[in-house]
């Protein structure tokens, strides 16, 4: 493959990852890293560097579009980022102390349970009959957006904030320990624990992943993992893809977004269980 | 239906914060992309593809020695950008660095925005997040 073909292929792959990432609230690293390393033979370090840039690009592209619409809730985002970032610092401090494979196994099982829980509420368009959460009121974890698909204003308030905050802290610890992206956990915590509308969950996750990724971007940069020739087509592709994806997502049903999200949890669950069992997973 | 209707005024207040942060993310992304595209175009125009034919191999097998184009500190980057003729890859790198700091600037901008709408609690939360981000960059030692 010559360089122009290589760069174009990277751009197109990244654009696809950007669309998916913007809709599902993920950084696209989950798609990009295996594709870059397996199909294009890119060195793992550069693939990880490209992944961290892709997370920030997805976040900037998608959150810029979502913030004006009320889909991305900046208060909920910042509140939960506090949990994730302090969790990540704890995780980094625990590295080497905790047996990683046991953790992977536990995480895999927890994710399998989440997958089942997601299946159970797969068709729920908007959560109903939630109790008033004291912390949600105290921290203003609520908002409203105009749903283009339902053609109505949707008001929402977080439930079970304590559980959501704890889950986000745990997700931060695990991402610090295992070096995995935590976009999927952010969405799960908001959708499953805090019972926010699915679109608010993925859009707010999009806002948050850029911040958590920026926290570690300096490390990748200083290590020389960010190679401009790989990262440039990836960043441009992701930004273009995220722009398109955010527009598509605004018109989707909450239930459709959740259905699209399910395979990601199943993939993560299987991959963690396999790694925990010592099988080299995907 | 949600239990009790969230206060309607909250959304208007948040609007200002969301607008400011949204604008930072949008323009930051745009400036970054512009630099990336200009850098890539210059790289192609100056025969970058011919000169660095070994580049692909380098991407696949990372050796101990740092490849030609990878920059690991801001000082090195600024020096590279000021040199003439301009190195297109350094232009791309500036675009990448801007992209990396966009979320940090977004959080920084949220602090005064929350203060303006009278939400001291969230100004404090944003400041705490900003502090942790700055710490992350300082600990890395590369950018700074």
Helix content of chain B: over 70%
Task: Indicate the structural class of chain A.
Answer: mainly alpha
Unreliable parts of chain B = 1-10
Number of extended strands of chain A? 2
Describe this structure in words.
The complex is a heterodimer of chains A (282) and B (144). Chain A is mainly alpha-helical and 282 residues long. Chain A contains 11 helices and 2 strands; from the N terminus they run ααααααββααααα. A two-stranded antiparallel ribbon of chain A has the order 1-2. In chain A, a hairpin with a 4-residue loop joins β1 and β2. In chain A, α1 packs across α9 (198-223), α3 packs across α9 (198-223) and α4 crosses α9. The relative contact order of chain A is 0.23. The model of chain A has no long low-confidence stretch (mean pLDDT 85). Chain B is mainly α. The longest helix of chain B has 38 residues, at 8-45. Chain B is elongated, with a radius of gyration of 21 Å. Chain B starts with 7 loop residues before the first helix and ends with a helix. Mean pLDDT of chain B is 76; it is low at 1-10. Classes of the chains: A mainly alpha (282), B mainly alpha (144). The interface between A and B is large, with 70 and 76 residues.
């Amino acid at each position: 493959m010559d360089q122009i073909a290589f760069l174009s292929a990277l751009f197109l792959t990244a654009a696809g990852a950007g669309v998916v990432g913007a809709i599902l609230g993920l950084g696209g690293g989950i798609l990009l890293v295996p594709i870059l390393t397996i199909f294009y033979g890119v060195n793992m370090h550069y693939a990880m560097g490209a992944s961290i840039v892709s997370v920030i690009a997805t976040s900037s592209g998608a959150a810029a579009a979502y913030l004006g619409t009320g889909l991305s809730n900046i208060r909920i985002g910042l509140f939960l980022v506090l949990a994730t970032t302090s969790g990540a610092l704890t995780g980094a401090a625990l590295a080497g102390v905790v047996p990683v494979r046991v953790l992977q196994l536990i995480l895999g099982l927890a994710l399998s349970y989440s997958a089942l829980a997601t299946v159970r509420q797969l068709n729920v368009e908007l959560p109903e009959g939630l109790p008033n959460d004291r912390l949600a009121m105290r921290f203003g974890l609520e908002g409203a957006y105009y749903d283009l698909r339902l053609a109505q204003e949707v008001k929402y308030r977080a439930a079970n904030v304590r559980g959501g905050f704890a889950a986000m802290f745990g997700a931060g610890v695990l991402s610090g320990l295992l070096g995995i992206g935590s976009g999927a956990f952010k969405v799960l915590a908001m959708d499953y624990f805090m019972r926010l509308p699915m679109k608010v969950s993925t859009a707010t996750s999009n806002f948050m992943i850029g911040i958590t990724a920026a926290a570690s971007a300096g490390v990748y940069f200083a290590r020389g993992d960010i190679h401009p020739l790989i990262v440039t087509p990836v960043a441009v592709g992701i930004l273009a893809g995220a722009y398109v994806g955010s527009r598509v997502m605004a018109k989707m049903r909450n239930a459709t977004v959740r259905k699209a999200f399910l395979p990601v949890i199943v993939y993560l669950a299987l991959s963690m269980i396999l790694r925990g069992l010592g099988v080299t997973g995907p | 239906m949600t239990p009790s209707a969230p206060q309607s005024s909250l959304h208007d207040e948040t609007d200002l914060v969301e607008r400011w942060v949204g604008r930072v993310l949008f323009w930051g992304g745009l400036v970054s992309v512009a630099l990336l595209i200009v850098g890539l175009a210059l790289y192609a125009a100056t025969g970058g593809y011919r000169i660095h034919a070994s580049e692909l191999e380098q991407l696949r097998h990372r050796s101990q020695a740092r490849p030609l184009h990878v920059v690991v500190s801001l000082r090195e980057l600024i020096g590279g950008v000021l040199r003439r003729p301009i190195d297109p890859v350094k232009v791309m790198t500036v675009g990448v660095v801007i992209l990396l700091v966009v979320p940090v600037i977004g959080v920084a901008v949220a602090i005064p925005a929350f203060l303006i709408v009278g939400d001291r609690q969230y100004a404090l939360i944003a400041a705490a997040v900003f502090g942790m981000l700055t710490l992350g960059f300082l600990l890395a030692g590369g950018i700074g």
